[in-house]
Amino acid sequence: MSKRKNVLLIVVDQWRGDTLPMLGHPLIKTPNIAALAAEGVTFARHYTQAVPCGPARASLLTGLYMMNHRAVQNTIPLDARHTNVAKEARKKGYDPAIVGYTTTTPDPREVAAEDPRFKVLGDLMDGWRPVGSWGLKMEAYFSWVAANGYKLPDNPWDIWLPQDLAPGEIGATRKPSRIPAELSDTVWFTDRGLDYIRGANKKPWFLHLGYWRPHPPFAAPAPYHDMFDPADCPPPVRAASVEEEAKQHPMLRFYLESVKRKSFFENGEGLGADMDEGEVRQMRASYYGLMEEIDVHLGRVFQHLKDSGQWDDTLIILTCDHGEQLGDHHLLGKLGYFDGSFHIPMIVRDPDASANGTRGQIVRQFTESVDLMPTVLEWIGQDCPRACDGHSLLPFLRDGGAPDTWRREVHYEFDFRNVFYSKPEEPLGLTMDQCALAVVQDENWKYVHFAALPPLLFDLKSDPGQFHNLAEDPAHAATVRDYAQRMLNWRLTHAERTLTGYAATPEGLMLRL
């Protein structure tokens, strides 16, 4: 490599795409992220291809739609034959390192059934060199906390319980978590990332810097727990009652009746759907505080790059695996088909002088998580595999406009088969492979197709909150047909194509790109 070109890929967890100051959020400041956006480009309509974490990160890092990589849920293996951005970067001489996790379950044809990775939600994707993995059950982080003098409880996760927990106090609270801010997981991830960058010396480096936050438990350490007044937080976008919400679709009813608060609060009891508006606002205040904490520590990373003279040698991408319902539609978590789960942040700062004309711009065209891999590979000068479903974002950064052929709609998927912590199949009367939905969404309409349940159609102009299903209305039959055909066209165009560019000819093997 003649010129030093570093890549810093920052991947936060469960961060909604609408919670960025440059996109008009009324409370969140995140000044370091805002400063990064002022020197880069913010993609306002950026969507993950799948939820939850495992399939989302599979799409993010392989550049494949879920229908192609088929790691369709947490705990479902990723086929070992698929390449990823780290493996491809190795062809250019990089040794991609990772702080964090990818929630990847290994291919059971490649490893023994007794492998301990089959007893957790997922581990690290092949191709990355771990420089800050917290282990299969956060043991590295908890060990670091104890080594810094904090006495861990018998259940280490209790560090995220609120301080001075009152009798009967459950779920969302304004109290800080028990762990002090200087020992938070956000500090641990940041320190591991800085250790790696300092040790990279003068060779080009590629770091996936992952953060667990603002993933639940939704309890922030002091002083971040009290940065926002719950009364100032936006109210949830939801129907007047859980029962009214549940009428929209059988799958939605299942999650309203099964998602428990304990998955989001260490002291949670009962269903997430039963949270009143005050609790939702408090949850949002804690969630925003966790975001501000990440911003403070990203400031440390950015300042080190500047102080060490690496700021203008480094491509910086900040993105996420998936979003969070955060009480919208009476839901918690990342699931279903609503934008809160699928709309995610994407900010890219290209240090090259050719990007000077686009700094601070906001792109409104649809972009997708599969666009990450071709963007990074083009920037480092490595060819992108034909199988990749995404497209490089560099034209937006250097030309300031979308290519004429750029997508005019976005696609994403959700597989809701049984896993050990959620079992929709029996209540819905579906087989494992029937538990699937796919979405096509543009400026005007959102169509949700289910493998074995009724479809949904929303008019996004008149019903941006997506409360009124028009799929069964005869007046909209033509729209349903049109968007179903668009989805079929999408699937036909993007069917797995690793080898379909090759062909035998009388002159020998031919390759079309």
Short recap of the structure:
This is Sulfatase. With about 525 residues, the protein is of the alpha/beta class.
Protein described:
This protein has 513 residues and is α/β, with parallel strands linked by helices. The protein has one domain (6-452): Alkaline Phosphatase, subunit A (3-Layer(aba) Sandwich). Helix content is 26%, strand content 15%. The chain has helices at residues 31-38, 53-62, 66-69, 85-90, 139-147, 185-199, 242-246, 250-256, 277-307, 339-342, 372-380, 394-398, 425-428, 477-493; strands at 6-12, 41-47, 50-51, 97-99, 129-132, 206-210, 314-320, 346-349, 361-368, 410-415, 436-441, 445-450, 456-459, 502-505, 508-511. The strands form three sheets. The chain has an eight-stranded mixed β-sheet with strand order 5-4-6-1-7-8-2-9, with helices on both faces. The chain has a five-stranded mixed β-sheet with strand order 3-10-11-12-13. It is globular and about 80 Å long.
Number of domains: 1
* Pattern of helices and strands: EHEEHHHEEHHEHHHEHEEHHEHEEEHEE
By CATH reckoning, the class would read Alpha Beta
Q: Report the portion of residues in β strands.
A: 15-25%
Helix content: 25-40%
CATH-level-2 architecture: 3-Layer(aba) Sandwich
Largest sheet entry: 8 strands, mixed
What order do the strands of the largest sheet run in, or round the barrel if closed? 5-4-6-1-7-8-2-9
Tell me the CATH topology. Alkaline Phosphatase, subunit A
Identify the notable features of this structure and list them briefly.
513 residues; 15% strand; alpha/beta; 14 helices; 26% helix; globular; five-stranded mixed beta sheet; eight-stranded mixed beta sheet; single chain; hydrolase; metal-binding; Alkaline Phosphatase, subunit A
